């Protein structure tokens, strides 16, 4: 096999295959990272398969990146060779708009640069992600990773972690709150860990009784089977916050019914039409909200929190050569709870 | 004609007709009010026609009541004979739950008593509303009406007014904000007046170009025709708050697109399924919320604000004998913007 440095899909129905990419020369503010691990996010599959209609080929996915700094630009202040670092879903933004100034680069009004499939301002074309040997990233978008954690299990924190952490923090989840997490997958299992670590009475809300035991192991205080109408009725109007990780359109009304007056349910996965009844919001002054990943500052806060509380994802390791099987298993929800690619395997 | 004291519908397809009702003897904390005016709310029609499936007949509608105190119970402290007062959508609540203690009796966890079609705790059966000569109400649910306003045009403030005032205040609409009001009817015309009086740059959002002139007369700084895609695009992501008064299920996505990051659209009319795309909420951390009328304390604040700023509804007066025609015209949106019944006409 040719000496490749990445894996890519060349069209929407192609398997990922060995591929060679160019990374830019490092600029004054750039950090070059040798990638150790990269998580497999469901959105990698959506983009490879062009489910959102905006994919550019070849697609090199991967935005849950962990590695070591191997080179820094002359103006880089916070990183040096050998540092353990992470890169998430973004590698750049304008730094000038209100959202960037508010440390919420994910909502950059001029459009943030996605880690892959974003517009590459340096080389032209589009950006390539972490299913690769190395990456060059502007310092501002590099995260410090605590050294005390199981490094490979940190990778999914860069997307699944921050996506669930950000709304829990935005809505001020705290000790004594009753918090629901809907859906137990890559996002949901992190939602349970975080809500529990923040001191909330955490309720896993799922359609699958089979997930109860695992939810409790992850930190859930209770499991609510959403198909059980009697159980749902008992919990009506009692939740301070619900994090909804369901990745597709669905009927949100039963969950809205669980909220207290003035409480919020935040969608982090469903980027489709969802069913919602106006009366359910009006009768208790409730809110249906959304949240997209998180800003760089809060991503660092999350990583620091994880370091202090010894929190990582539950993962299954694979070699990059097994990525196509892994995609199929993710689609079938057959993973607890995140695949992580050992990126050194690319040399095999 | 027999000497009647109210008008009622006896079944869901019956016209309103003269009817005689009993009011309770006043208790220690009761206020008896001779009704001068009563507004005609769209929900009067829904309840008369049993559109919500919970009507109890005979239905005596009316929850936008203005009148003079004619008698007070021995423990009444804040009212005396001759006072100009109002009664809105509620006449009682438990006073003990968290919502009642938070001055949000409309969300009473034990169920507030609606002014009509509510459970009558005193006489049994159900409550009768303001399409009548007089009403007996617990002091706590009686509002003081400023004497300097056009009294008959104050009536709609008790429902249409507080329904729009409450979310504008909850979401802290203030000078300099850009606020949209969707729909120009009984609620919407009050929304425009209030948003403007609170100092916001107020934009009337309507499907009907024919409403532009009137919207500006009511206080709108701009009119945005929601069917005009170019106009809608220009306003994308620029609104701090949107008050949505559309009374039926509809596609909320175009309006959500108008919101800034972290901004909210509150539904006050649509108690049906509405269309909403999860991605529209997620991409800008936006919120779809609901709001139901308002608490007694904030209703009093609204009336006081109206007294200070000389704000009333735009009304068309009718005699009670014309109520059935008025209902038909409300259904056709053929009223600018609220019918008010001269209740003295019942003696004609």
General description of the model:
The structure is a homodimer of 348-residue chains. By secondary structure, chain A is α/β, with parallel strands linked by helices. Chain A folds into 2 domains: 6-158 and 314-347, Medium-chain alcohol dehydrogenases, catalytic domain (Quinone Oxidoreductase, Chain A, domain 1, Alpha-Beta Complex); 161-290, Rossmann fold (3-Layer(aba) Sandwich), CATH 3.40.50.720. Chain A has 11 helices and 18 strands. In chain A, the strands form 4 sheets. In chain A, strands 3, 4, 5, 8, 9, 17 and 18 form a 7-stranded mixed beta sheet that branches. Chain A has a 6-stranded parallel beta sheet with strand order 12-11-10-13-14-16, covered by helices on one side. In chain A, strand 10 (178-182), helix 5 and strand 11 (201-206) form a beta-alpha-beta unit. The mean pLDDT of chain A is 96. The A-B interface holds A 98-99, 104, 107, 109, 170, 237, 249, 261, 264, 267-292 and B 98-99, 104, 107, 109, 170, 237, 249, 261, 264, 267-292.
């Amino acid at each position: 096999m040719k000496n490749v440095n990445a894996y890519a899909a060349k069209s929407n129905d192609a398997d990922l295959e060995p591929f060679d990419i160019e990374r830019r020369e490092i600029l004054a503010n750039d950090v070059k990272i040798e990638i150790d691990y990269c998580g497999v996010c469901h959105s990698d599959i959506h983009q490879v398969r062009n489910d959102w209609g905006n994919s550019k080929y070849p697609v090199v996915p991967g935005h849950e990146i962990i590695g070591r700094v191997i080179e820094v630009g002359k103006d880089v202040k916070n990183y040096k060779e050998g540092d353990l670092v992470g890169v998430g879903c973004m590698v750049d933004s304008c730094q000038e708009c209100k959202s960037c100034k508010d440390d919420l680069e994910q909502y950059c009004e001029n459009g943030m640069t996605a880690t892959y499939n974003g517009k590459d301002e340096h080389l032209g074309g589009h950006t390539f992600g972490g299913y690769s040997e190395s990456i060059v990233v502007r310092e501002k978008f590099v995260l410090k990773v605590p050294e005390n954690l199981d490094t490979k299990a940190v990778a999914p924190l860069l997307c699944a972690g921050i996506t669930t952490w950000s709304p829990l923090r935005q809505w001020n989840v705290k000790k004594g709150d009753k918090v629901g997490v809907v859906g137990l997958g890559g996002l949901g299992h992190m939602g349970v860990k975080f809500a529990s670590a923040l001191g909330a009475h955490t309720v896993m809300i799922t359609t699958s009784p089979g997930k109860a035991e695992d939810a409790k192991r992850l930190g859930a205080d209770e499991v609510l089977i959403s198909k059980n109408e009697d159980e749902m009725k008992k919990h009506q109007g009692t939740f301070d916050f619900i994090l909804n990780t369901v990745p597709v359109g669905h009927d949100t009304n039963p969950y809205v019914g669980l909220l207290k007056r003035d409480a919020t349910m935040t969608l982090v996965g469903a980027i489709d039409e969802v069913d919602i009844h106006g009366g359910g919001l009006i009768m208790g002054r409730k809110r249906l909200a959304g949240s997209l990943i998180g800003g760089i500052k809060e991503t660092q806060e999350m990583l620091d929190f994880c370091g202090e509380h010894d929190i990582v994802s539950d993962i299954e390791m694979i070699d990059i050569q097994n990525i196509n099987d892994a995609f199929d298993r993710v689609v079938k929800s057959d993973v607890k709870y995140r695949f992580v690619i050992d990126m050194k395997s690319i040399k095999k």
